[in-house]
Amino acid sequence: MHVFADASGGNVGLAISQSLILNGMLQHGMRLTAEVVNQMTSVERVLEYTKIVKERDLETHPGKYFVFSSLLTRWT
């Protein structure tokens, strides 16, 4: 007993091609959704960075050999 005994080859081909097109559209929609989520995450990060409290300025400069002396004290 065949359920689709009256289905022609053209109708079967049309059903297959339409299902592949629908699958491609769903994949594209998911890709766009993921891209929007990524962009919104970037926007949230930028908004958080704008709310960071600014550090106060140094009252005195560390000096000419600050980095070098710190390296020397680190290794000795």
Short characterization:
The protein has 76 residues and is an all-alpha fold. The protein has helices at residues 9-50, 66-75.
SSE order and pairing:
Elements: H1 9-50, H2 66-75
Molecular structure report:
The chain is mainly alpha-helical and 76 residues long. It has a domain at 7-37. 68% of the residues lie in helices and 0% in strands. It is built from 2 helices and no strands. The protein has helices at residues 9-50, 66-75. It is rod-shaped. The relative contact order is 0.05. The mean pLDDT is 81.
Order of helices and strands: HH
Q: Tell me the distance between the termini.
A: 90 Å
Overall geometry comes to rod-shaped
Summarize model confidence as the mean pLDDT: 81
The secondary structure category is mainly alpha
Strand content: under 5%
- Portion in helices: 55-70%
Number of strand elements:
0
The largest β sheet comes out as: none
Please mark out the parts with pLDDT under 50 across 5 or more consecutive residues, or reply none. Answer: none
Number of helices: 2
Question: Based on the structure, what is the oligomeric state of the protein chains?
Answer: single chain
Using only C-alpha atoms, the radius of gyration works out to 32 Å
